[in-house]
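ARCHIVE CARD
CATEGORY: sequence design from structure
SOURCE FIELD: tokenized fold
FIELD CONTENT:
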């Protein structure tokens, strides 16, 4: 029996560091010749706090979001090993393979290995794999040349480091030792170092007393403040956030009096997640820490983001900008996005994102990440962009952009912040992970494909327009679906999305054809 280093031990950390030295060499080889043989092991584990993940409907189906990486199979010598908790519907896999431009499906399928744990529990996928030595042995057998192979994941944690060491594969993602930079506390420190604007606030907090102290400081600094935000360090998609309303609290009261009154009212926090409670929130806050920030007020507000990447040789770049579509009780929950961000501030977001990417690269980060902003239009028509979060992982804006890039083989233009297909046309999209209706429950993957083809929704390569679905596995059980609607302008992309909803509603309504 093989003896592995103890998780988190100096021996494991040393072994991981040695593996990581292979990543730049493989990057250079592929840059010189995309036909270089390689094997990519995809482990789409959401290795995050399970209490936060439990807030997301059908969360285990989010392992499907990285199926967009099947389009790497357009590189003729690339081999993929995709591991999931449960076996995926073959129709879903076929759906993605059929999207490959210029590659026979049979050729792509011969280079794809799908493996699963047969385990729908709420444990992270990576943990499930680590608990299955025979599955790890199977993965190692499928990797034909470990010197030309690497692993990719949704986010990297200590679990992914252990798996990388046991598989003998480098991880093309951020070193788990740097994950603090992506927490709500860590990113505030990164923003300061990068010289970008951020909300007045405090980080590295744990206790209700510290939260009350900082809420008091915000009110003392701005007596007109109506509310402030309390965030869990490892909250996900905005659902780890809560609002504190000052209501009748007066900043002129003594500091001790004001702090005491705030402390007494912490159980009145307004949570973004509908099932959250103060006792549960306080327990998680103690466990993982958090921040308190002044709420960014404004009559005209938007929520853009910059998607960035530091490649395997440490070069930072901005690869896209988006406007986020937010919902929830106070508009802090991520629902979807549009690409690109608006003309009036797109380049400013790109510039600010580049500063953050530079700082994270300086600290050793590699991989993809997003920087979220709250932007407020000023009286003179300009915009103030306030950085509020770094998602040090593949997030809700990652797979839509990769979908566009893989389908069209186009390029993002740093000069104007637009994406151009080889035809020379700029491309736009509207994307969401949260299209959900009770009436959609019971629709199988083959039903969705049939509806899409019948109504002409399916992405059409020659026109470079149409709809691509994801999270298809969540449709039958939860009535939930992801959509990327690609068009020649944003109005067309939105029209395609609305048309998709109209079609699905008609097909699942009383007069549907099912």
């Amino acid at each position: 029996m093989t003896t592995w280093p103890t998780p988190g031990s100096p021996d494991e950390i040393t072994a991981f560091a040695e593996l990581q030295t292979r990543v730049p060499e493989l990057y250079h080889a592929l840059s010189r010749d995309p036909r270089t043989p390689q094997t990519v092991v995809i482990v789409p584990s959401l290795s995050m706090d399970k209490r936060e993940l439990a807030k997301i409907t059908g969360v285990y189906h989010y392992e499907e979001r990285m199926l967009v990486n099947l389009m790497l199979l357009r590189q003729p010598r690339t081999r993929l090993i995709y591991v999931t908790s449960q076996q995926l519907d073959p129709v879903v896999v076929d759906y993605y393979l059929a999207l490959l431009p210029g590659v026979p499906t049979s050729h792509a399928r011969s280079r794809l290995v799908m493996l699963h744990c047969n385990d729908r529990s709420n444990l992270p996928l990576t943990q499930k794999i680590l608990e299955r030595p025979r599955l790890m042995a199977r993965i190692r057998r499928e990797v034909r040349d470990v010197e030309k192979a690497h692993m990719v994941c949704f986010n990297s944690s200590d679990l992914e480091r252990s798996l990388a060491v046991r598989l003998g594969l480098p991880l093309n993602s951020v070193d788990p030792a740097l994950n603090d930079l992506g927490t709500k506390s860590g990113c505030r420190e990164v923003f300061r170092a990068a010289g970008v604007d951020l909300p007045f606030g405090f980080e590295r907090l744990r206790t209700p007393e510290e939260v009350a102290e900082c809420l008091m400081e915000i009110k003392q600094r701005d007596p007109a403040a109506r509310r402030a935000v309390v965030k869990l360090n490892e909250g996900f998609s905005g659902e780890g956030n809560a609002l504190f309303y000052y209501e009748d609290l007066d900043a002129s009261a003594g500091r001790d009096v004001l702090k005491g009154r705030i402390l007494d009212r912490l159980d009145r926090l307004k949570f973004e997640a509908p099932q959250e409670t103060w006792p549960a929130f306080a327990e998680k806050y103690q466990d993982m820490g958090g921040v308190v920030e002044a709420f960014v007020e404004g009559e005209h507000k938007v929520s853009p983001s910059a998607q960035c990447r530091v490649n395997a040789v440490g070069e930072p770049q901005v690869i896209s900008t988006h406007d986020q579509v937010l919902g929830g009780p106070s508009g802090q929950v991520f629902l979807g996005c549009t690409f690109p961000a608006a003309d009036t501030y797109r380049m400013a977001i790109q510039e600010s994102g580049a500063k953050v990417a530079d700082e994270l690269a300086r600290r050793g980060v590699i991989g993809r990440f997003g920087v979220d902003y709250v932007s407020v239009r000023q009286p003179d028509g300009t915009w103030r962009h306030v950085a509020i979060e770094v998602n040090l992982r593949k997030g809700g804006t990652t797979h839509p952009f990769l979908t566009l890039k893989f389908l069209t083989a186009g390029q993002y233009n740093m000069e104007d912040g637009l994406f151009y297909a080889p035809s020379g046309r700029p491309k736009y999209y509207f994307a969401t992970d949260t299209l959900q209706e009770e009436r959609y429950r019971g629709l199988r993957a083959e039903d969705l494909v049939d509806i899409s083809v019948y109504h002409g929704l399916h992405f059409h390569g020659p026109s470079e327009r149409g709809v691509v679905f994801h999270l298809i596995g969540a449709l039958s059980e939860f009535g939930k679906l992801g959509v990327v609607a690609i068009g020649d302008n944003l109005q067309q992309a939105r029209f395609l999305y609305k048309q998709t909803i109209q079609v699905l509603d008609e097909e699942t309504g009383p007069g549907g054809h099912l």
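CARD ANNOTATION: DSSP finds 17 helices and 20 strands in the chain. The chain has a mean pLDDT of 92.
SHELF: design records, drawer C
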